[in-house]
């Protein structure tokens, strides 16, 4: 067998062949893929900008109409467009109430379930439980809506008395919304908890910590930024949720802090009006864009807040 | 095959008796007899996969977290088998601390790293004193005394490992297990840890697993040599004073390993 030539024995022809192999060659598919990926990214950004433009334009029409004044819109407690009263607070209040009730369910239960899955469950039960939880996340929200109306509300009426609980009420919608959001909070929190390095748990156990001490004082603090992100995403989801509240929370803008009464949320109102028969270019109709814009700003604000909190509470680990 | 250089009635810090260790049905370690002398440094050496770390972790039941792991035989601590059903593994780990291969400080301040373990163990004394005292013992005080509120992760690897030792000391264990504590450190940081071990062994029993034979030769009083059998189970070949193991090994396999003839 011939030995490979050493550096000194390379012929001119071999040098030539090496040089030709080093030559830069065009890779068209690479460029094509890059362009396709760029377009995909650009489309989503442009769509968002388009939505913002449309919302802003129509909302501007609303605020430009003589019946409307921005301050009254933001501080008024009566929403009766037919008689020219455009105070958005009843709708905002209903949205905040249903979201608050939902998070009251979703945060503790979701976090507890996440802690169980990540810290306590055996690998086998985790393998079974996690997909089941994710199925819950795949149920269409309209199904949840009717679940609220036909199961949760009768249940509440049976427990709290039919006289006290209206057929449409924010408590029922909020509770079911909490169940809907629970898998999201749980799944994201679980991801955050399981990505805490195993070495930190060992360090804690090695110091004589119990599993509970390890979980609450080491793992959860280390995963806090991810848990906060899960929570804020859950709130955004609750604020934007439409079907459940449209079906179960009621359809009259009612300014009340009583969760047993019906009240229309921002999304519920938008859904009702946009499906209704109001004439275009009336302030009534245009109001939904103003509300949509407000909703957009609320979720945007929550997202910014979540980024801040995540950065602030981050316990960096290797 | 097990060589004992001590009289049998000596009081041991901890003792493995006919210890076999299983992962599921696979026997990872078989029939280990190991008597650890108090306030000395016992090194466990041997090739990869011979069960050194497994045995080390058996001493404070850190293997409990491996779902399929179980043992045969016993580990006696003050005459009590720590695998008896009425023994609380949490209490065992408070008395038998551990330092890991990779420095793993909590993502908290230096100060909080020290007081954390002590606090969950019911420490009620002066925390500032505890921090200073343990950091001094771990030969880290002078380097960090002005930055106690700084994140522990900002320290160098060697400093982090000494912090982990300090953290273990703050719980006041009788024994500290060290699982290749220097494998992620540079030679200078390694020597600092070895000096520290020597100092600590005046009051505490140390058992150290190491890949580094020079380290075992330099830093330990007793050495246990482990290897693998044909059935891939780890076993202890020879155990005795470090001096004897390295200069006059009784077993051919020990000699092959320490002279580098081992494949």
Automatic annotation (TrEMBL), chain B:
<keyword id="KW-0067">ATP-binding</keyword>
<dbReference type="GO" id="GO:0005315">
    <property type="term" value="F:phosphate transmembrane transporter activity"/>
</dbReference>
<keyword id="KW-0813">Transport</keyword>
<protein>
    <submittedName>
        <fullName>Phosphate ABC transporter ATP-binding protein</fullName>
    </submittedName>
</protein>
<dbReference type="GO" id="GO:0035435">
    <property type="term" value="P:phosphate ion transmembrane transport"/>
</dbReference>
<dbReference type="Pfam" id="PF00005">
    <property type="entry name" value="ABC_tran"/>
</dbReference>
<dbReference type="InterPro" id="IPR003593">
    <property type="entry name" value="AAA+_ATPase"/>
</dbReference>
<dbReference type="InterPro" id="IPR005670">
    <property type="entry name" value="PstB-like"/>
</dbReference>
<dbReference type="InterPro" id="IPR017871">
    <property type="entry name" value="ABC_transporter-like_CS"/>
</dbReference>
<dbReference type="GO" id="GO:0005524">
    <property type="term" value="F:ATP binding"/>
</dbReference>
<feature type="domain" description="ABC transporter">
    <location>
        <begin position="14"/>
        <end position="258"/>
    </location>
</feature>
<dbReference type="InterPro" id="IPR003439">
    <property type="entry name" value="ABC_transporter-like_ATP-bd"/>
</dbReference>
<keyword id="KW-0547">Nucleotide-binding</keyword>
<dbReference type="GO" id="GO:0016887">
    <property type="term" value="F:ATP hydrolysis activity"/>
</dbReference>
<dbReference type="GO" id="GO:0016020">
    <property type="term" value="C:membrane"/>
</dbReference>
<dbReference type="InterPro" id="IPR027417">
    <property type="entry name" value="P-loop_NTPase"/>
</dbReference>
């Amino acid at each position: 067998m011939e030995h490979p030539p050493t550096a000194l024995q390379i012929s001119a022809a071999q040098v030539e062949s090496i040089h030709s192999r080093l030559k830069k060659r065009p890779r068209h598919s690479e460029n094509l893929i890059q362009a396709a990926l760029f377009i995909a990214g650009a489309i989503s950004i442009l769509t968002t900008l388009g939505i913002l433009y449309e919302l802003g334009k129509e909302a501007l029409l609303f605020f430009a109409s003589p019946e409307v004044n921005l301050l009254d819109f933001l501080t008024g407690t009566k929403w009766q467009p037919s008689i020219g009263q455009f105070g958005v607070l009843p709708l905002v209040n209903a949205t905040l109430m249903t979201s608050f009730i939902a998070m009251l369910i979703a945060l503790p239960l979701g976090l507890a379930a996440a802690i169980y899955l990540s810290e306590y469950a055996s690998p086998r039960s985790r393998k079974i439980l996690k997909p089941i939880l994710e199925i819950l996340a795949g149920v269409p929200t309209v199904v949840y809506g009717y679940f609220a109306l036909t199961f949760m509300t009768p249940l509440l009426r049976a427990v709290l008395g039919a006289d006290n609980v209206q057929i449409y009420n924010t408590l029922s919608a909020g509770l079911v919304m909490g169940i809907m959001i629970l898998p999201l909070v749980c799944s994201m929190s679980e991801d955050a908890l399981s990505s805490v390095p195993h070495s930190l748990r060992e360090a804690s156990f090695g110091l004589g910590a119990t599993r509970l001490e390890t979980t609450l004082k080491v793992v959860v603090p280390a995963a806090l930024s991810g848990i906060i992100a899960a929570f804020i995403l859950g709130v955004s989801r609750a604020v934007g949720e439409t079907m459940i509240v449209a079906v179960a929370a009621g359809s009259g803008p009612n300014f009340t802090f009583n969760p047993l009464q019906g009240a229309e949320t921002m999304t519920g109102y938008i859904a009702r009006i946009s499906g209704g028969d109001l004439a275009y270019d009336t302030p009534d109709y245009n109001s939904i864009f103003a509300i949509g814009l407000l909703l957009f700003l609320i979720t945007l604000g929550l997202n910014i807040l979540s980024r801040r909190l995540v950065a602030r509470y981050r316990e960096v680990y290797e | 095959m097990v060589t004992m250089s001590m009289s049998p009635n000596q009081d041991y810090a901890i003792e493995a008796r006919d210890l076999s260790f299983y992962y599921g049905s696979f026997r990872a370690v078989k029939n280990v007899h190991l008597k650890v002398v108090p306030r000395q440094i016992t090194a466990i050496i041997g090739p990869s996969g011979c069960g050194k770390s497994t045995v080390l972790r058996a001493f404070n039941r850190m293997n409990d977290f491996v779902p399929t792991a179980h043992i045969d035989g016993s580990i006696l601590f003050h005459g009590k088998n720590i695998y008896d059903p009425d023994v609380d593994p949490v209490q065992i780990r408070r008395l038998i601390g551990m330092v890991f291969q990779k420095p793993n400080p909590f993502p908290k301040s230096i100060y909080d790293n020290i007081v954390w373990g002590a606090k969950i163990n019911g420490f009620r004394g002066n925390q500032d004193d505890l921090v200073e005292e343990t950091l001094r013992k771990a030969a880290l005080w002078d380097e960090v005394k002005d930055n106690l509120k700084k994140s522990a992760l900002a320290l160098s690897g060697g400093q982090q490992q000494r912090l982990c030792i300090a953290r273990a000391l703050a719980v006041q264990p009788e024994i500290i297990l060290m699982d290749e504590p220097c494998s992620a450190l540079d030679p200078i940081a390694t020597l600092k840890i070895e000096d520290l071990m020597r100092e600590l062994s005046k009051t505490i029993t140390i058992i150290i697993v190491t890949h580094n034979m020079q380290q075992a030769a330099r830093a330990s009083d007793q050495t246990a040599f482990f290897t693998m059998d044909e059935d891939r189970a780890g076993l202890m070949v020879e155990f005795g004073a470090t001096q004897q193991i390295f200069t006059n090994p009784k077993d051919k396999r020990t000699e092959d390993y320490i002279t580098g003839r081992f494949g």
